[in-house]
Automatic annotation (TrEMBL):
Annotated metabolic or biological route of this protein: Sphingolipid metabolism; Lipid metabolism; sphingolipid metabolism
Catalytic activity entry: sphinganine + NADP(+) = 3-oxosphinganine + NADPH + H(+)
Keyword Transferase on entry: no
PANTHER family, sorted: 3-KETODIHYDROSPHINGOSINE REDUCTASE
PROSITE patterns in the cross-refs: ADH_SHORT
Cellular component annotations (GO), alphabetically ordered: endoplasmic reticulum membrane
GO biological processes: 3-keto-sphinganine metabolic process; sphingolipid biosynthetic process
Localization in the cell: Endoplasmic reticulum
InterPro entries: KDSR-like (IPR045022), NAD(P)-bd_dom_sf (IPR036291), Sc_DH/Rdtase_CS (IPR020904), SDR_fam (IPR002347)
Family: Belongs to the short-chain dehydrogenases/reductases (SDR) family.
Record keyword Transmembrane present: yes
Name of the protein described by the UniProt record: 3-dehydrosphinganine reductase
Amino acid sequence: MADANLAFGTLLLLIFPLALLALLALIVRPRPVKIPLKNRHVFITGGSSGIGLALAHAAAAAESARVSILARSLDKLEEARDSIRLATGIEAAIYAADVRDFDAVKKAVDSAGPIDVLIVNQGVFFAGELEKQELSEVRFMIDVNLLGSFNVVKAALPGMKSRSDRRPVSIALMSSQAGQVGVYGYTAYSASKFGLRGMAEALQHEVIADDIHVSLIFPPDTETPGLAEETKTRPPLTSIIAASSGAMKADEVARKCFDGIKLGSFFVPCNFEGAMLAIATAGLAPQRSPLMAFVEVVAIGLMRVVALFFQWNWYGSITKFASKNK
């Protein structure tokens, strides 16, 4: 009898995961997709430096894509164009515009022509406690990071929907690990990046019938000129908490981005911590991969425990710091 019960239990242990995986394969939406990049038009905002420039290099070098980059500074754009040409032999098109100005963005997008992969990458960041931060800085971050993303997507959508090439296309929004979890000193920045998730989830509903696929990218601290400046002024507690996730190089982030974009992944984490956060915060986000959906279902309880340990550690650091500086 004991042997029969053991055999039955073993059978259940084998059947349940397979049955769950089969169910998830039936219900995951949107369906899996492959988005080709080879010889297609990749349009990148914030493309004159940092992650944006690394994305432009990767698109030109690895995918032989037609690359367009948009940023505010024409001088920086010209330098970026020269570096892309020297490294890849491809001449990138450049457009100087402020993403806060819809008319200027629309003019640039229309001049660039039909876009196959739109990467909304621009971003600004000032670390600081809300009580001490100027409201002008708060508005600037929200205007550039969030409202600027609406301007770029709204400008590009008509052309992406009316394209003659009916292969699947992509809109990728550059969030941040600070768009997955709030961090001390990132009050305004996190708000601007968390907002992109709501935008991305609703936008995917609106454009899926046109074979347009939305990705939300979550880079950690990335070794860019912007990070070098930001770390000079960030609050000490922000540095303590941010140290739990190491910095990545911009070209590594670019590779992760394109890996996710080509698979149409909705969440695109860039490192192990980002992948854990993606599981812990999956919620009602779309999921294309039955295997990844299986991991989310099985691991989400454990990830909640891990998250609580992180919060225990962070709040401990905050309490200790506050007691020392009273």
